[in-house]
Amino acid sequence: MGDHRSYPLIARAGKDGYENNLQSRTFSVGSAVFGADLPTIIAGPCAVESREQTLGIAKAVKEAGADCLRGGAFKPRTSPYSFQGLGREGLEILAEARAETGLPVVTEVMDVRLVELVCEVADMLQIGSRNMQNFPLLIEVGKAGKPVLLKRGMSATIDEWLCAAEYIALSGTAEILLVERGVRCSVSRGYTRNTLDLNVIVPTREETVLPVLADPSHSTGRADLVPWVSRAAIGAGAQGLIIEVIGEDMRPEDVRCDGAQSIKPSVLREIIDTVKTPVPGTAV
Ligand code: PEP
Ligand code: MN
User: Fold this and answer.
1) For 56-103, how does the pLDDT look when each residue is reduced to its tens digit (9 = 90+)?
2) Is 17 domain-assigned?
3) Total count of domains within the chain
4) What is the pTM of this model?
């Protein structure tokens, strides 16, 4: 494993009281608590596509028991011709969704020039997989002082991931969530989008006091796999999930971004009911 001296601010070693177990740094984002005993669930649309879509999904995920609302206003898309997000208008919709539901909002920031704007609305800033090693962005986000959700780069080692988190911590933000979102794996291409690296969760928790969550949506790319993989991730030590959701009456093809991997609120409710029920003897 890596060298703790590369990430002393977030390392487990040397932190009094943390060495002998997997206890995490616990912190709150609005009403959501991360790193405590029960898994924390972040849910919502991939992208904010319209006011009606986002408010509808926000209410549905709240009713299903989610702790936090996700939704991208600025989207990192592979093709420059794909929908790029509603930008500023998307942020305004997210603010309205928070006001209606009380759910704290996590949304992605991709550009150092937009950190201030995104901070006007976000309760937690998301750094996407593609930006995990965008060091100027990590520093700027760290200076902003809001909690940060840091996705693992799609081919990053634990060491690289933790060093990226250390940039944020060194810039002034201690409240960082790590999210395993699947890694590039040539043998899985064709039946899933990525490969959820279940093996990485406990070793990462052994290295750092930061909470580690999993993303069953981007790792699989398939809505039918999300309930299975959600349960597997919690079983493998994840301290929560970030899940993409579409409206109960929507079809995947009606969505401009990641419809195929988005589950319905009724399925989300089943997942939450299952993973929030502690199973005796399985706590790590
Ligand atoms: C997302 O969560 O919307 C996203 C783009 O995820 P990732 O950075 O993991 O691809
Ligand atoms: Mn997505």
Assistant:
1) 999 999 999 999 999 999 999 999 999 999 999 999 999 999 999 999
2) no
3) 1
4) 0.96
